[in-house]
Design a protein that fits this description.
Blueprint (H helix, E strand, L loop, with lengths): L1 H51 L4 H4 L5 H12 L4 H7 L1 H28 L11 H13 L2 H12 L3 H24 L5 H8 L4 H35 L7 H11 L4 H31 L4
Helix pairs in contact: 3-12, 4-12, 5-6, 5-8, 5-10, 6-8, 7-8, 8-10, 9-10, 10-12, 11-12
């Protein structure tokens, strides 16, 4: 018996080794085919877009730096006026930040309820979990600019369409993030509260939120950074704020490039400031730091 087991051992090792090498080769083949398909799709998509574009990409590639160079040169010539221009557009910056803040707050509240209603083990109506998840998917899938264009057509230009559009998209995005956090919560506290006759809202407030609040706040702050950029972009379609002023300055062309430079400086400084502040508080929340 010992001789038979010893003689069969090398064969079993060889079998395992050959099977492993075959799996490695198959994975390499599949990876190579996937990469090849990706490259083919990228090249074909680029060629189609380049053919349909008003101007060819390669023909205009040498002009990429012309506009930044014109803006910088004119801004440098009128550098003495930049502080006054930054003060002039500061109210528009406040409007942009307000749009981002209000939309983030509304979106976070909506995402909170969508996540709790769409999480297994926490949902008030378990049969409706797929419905609430599909609602959050739809809200997350539609870009803010599309929602803003529809709302501008209905409500007219201004900050309200931008706020609603960003809030809808934020609610869908945060609902997904919050759901992933909520699925990892300890249900013992929820079960204990349920045994005492607590309502669903009381179970969520007292049993779930204390566990997930740091991650919820961290994701909300991260989304606030994104919404500042989104509110500035939506200004290009007439949603108000700093983006609207930037579009006007850029559309005017030479002669107002110094205004465009001042707006760029304000927007860049604001994004960097809030990025650093939110990153600091997010690290404190996730790492459990209190100092």
């Amino acid at each position: 018996m010992a001789d038979i087991s010893l003689s069969g051992a090398p064969q079993s090792v060889q079998t395992i080794q050959s099977s492993y090498m075959a799996q490695v080769q198959r994975r390499r083949l599949y990876s190579g085919l996937t990469l090849l398909i990706f490259v083919i799709l990228m090249v074909s998509g680029f060629n189609i877009a380049d053919d349909r574009n008003a101007g060819g990409f390669w023909n205009g590639l040498h002009q990429v730096g012309d506009y930044p160079a014109d803006v910088l040169s004119e801004a440098w010539e009128k550098r003495a006026d930049l502080p006054a221009l930054m003060a002039r557009y500061f109210p528009a910056l406040i409007e942009t930040v307000n749009i981002a803040a209000v939309s983030t707050l509304i979106g976070a509240i909506g995402g909170l309820f969508l996540s709790l209603l769409g999480t297994r083990g926490l949902a008030k109506w378990p049969r409706l979990i797929p419905l609430f998840r599909r609602i959050s998917d739809i809200m997350r899938a539609v870009p803010e600019i599309v929602i803003a264009l529809v709302l501008i057509f209905v409500l007219g230009g201004g900050p309200v369409p931008a706020m609603i559009a960003i809030a809808i998209h934020t609610a869908g995005a945060l609902a997904k993030m919050f759901s992933e956090v909520s699925e990892n919560t300890d249900l013992k506290a929820v079960e204990g509260l349920s045994s005492t006759g607590a309502t669903w809202l009381q179970r969520m407030l007292l049993g779930v939120l204390p566990q997930v609040a740091p991650n919820y706040v961290s994701y909300t702050l991260l989304r606030f950074e994104i919404n500042i950029r989104a509110s500035a972009i939506l200004g290009f379609v007439g949603a108000g704020g700093l983006g609207y002023e930037l579009r006007n300055a850029m559309a005017w062309g030479p002669g107002r490039f110094d205004e465009a430079a001042a707006i760029f400086i304000l927007l860049f400084g604001t994004i960097v400031f809030f990025d650093q502040v939110s990153s600091r508080y997010r690290n404190r929340l996730t790492d459990g730091q209190t100092h």
